[in-house]
What we know:
This protein is α/β, with parallel strands linked by helices. The chain folds into three domains: 85 residues, Arc Repressor Mutant, subunit A (Orthogonal Bundle), CATH 1.10.10; 107 residues, D-Maltodextrin-Binding Protein, domain 2; 93 residues, D-Maltodextrin-Binding Protein, domain 2 (3-Layer(aba) Sandwich), CATH 3.40.190.10. Helix content is 47%, strand content 20%. Helix 3 crosses helix 4, helix 3 crosses helix 5 and helix 3 packs across helix 6. The longest helix is centred in the first third of the chain and has 32 residues. It is rod-shaped and about 100 Å long. 30% of the residues are buried. The site of 2-phosphoglycolic acid has 12 residues, from helix 10.
Amino acid sequence: MSKQSESRAKGLIWQSMTLHQLQVFEATARHCNFTRAAEELFLTQPTVSMQVKQLSKSVGMPLFEKVGKRLYMTDAGKAVYETSQAVFDRLAQLEAAIISLQGMEAGKLRLGATTTAQYIVPKLLAPFCQTYPGVEISLEIDKHKNVVERLNNNQDDLYILSQLPDRDDIQARSFLCNPLVVVAPAAHPFTQQETISLETLVKKPLILRERGSATREAVETLLAERGLVPQVRMELDNNEAIKQSIAEGLGLSVLSLHSLSRISSASELVILNVEGFPIHRQWYAVFLKSKALPVAAQTFLEYLLQESQQYCQIYPHPTANLMESLAG
Length: 328
Ligand code: PGA
């Protein structure tokens, strides 16, 4: 008994067929034409006929019949065609899964982030890196205008910022709140007041972030809406230096709540309850619409959107609970 009749006798048709035969048959069945299948697969027409013949032998039944000049699939042919499509669909899925796994094992993630994002990005990256230890990460933290410049030059995959550039070639996904609060030294007399009006606040010298910073712009916009102008005692482009300066009594300031995440109860800094504050802002992950995000960046984006949900549930009670959560 030949190998093929032996397999058929045992009911194991697939043992004597090959993937190559199935591929040739699938193309022939789809075109219902040997010549077109041969062209598609860069094979000769006799090779295609031979492969289909071999497959028919394995199945033990003809897969095509010729009526006049036309080729028709037999019922057995239709059954094999349906199976071949399912097999190749699954193989395509397997290939996509393997590519994606390779991407996460050796992929690169390039991030650009604005100054204040330094308080959230490493925190969010830590569990991501644990899950995908093979992903190589570069994180550029810079001033808002420089991050926008990097976006213009397509230097990174994703950009983390809270002030969106006004343009329509980008996509922005908000993933976390970014409340801005007024900060004072613990011994400041304002800490004794339940609420402080904006008019009272602007009478005091302020330490503000540099011009162009998103935080600075948000403060100036809020004050301008009330026709108020801040008394700027000092401009700094560094949140940590601002915190030191507040503690030294140089003035009050407005900072992202995230920059205060490490404040403990024994801290020298406190958050004041000022009218109009916190200023509600959002963190966005931004990317160019025209960019095909690499697997690692796509996975990080999905992770950001998912992970942020736990923080956002806390958001309705910003100061106490969010800080506790961030300090953890
Ligand atoms: P910053 O804020 O520029 O004030 O650091 C970051 C941002 O909002 O993008």
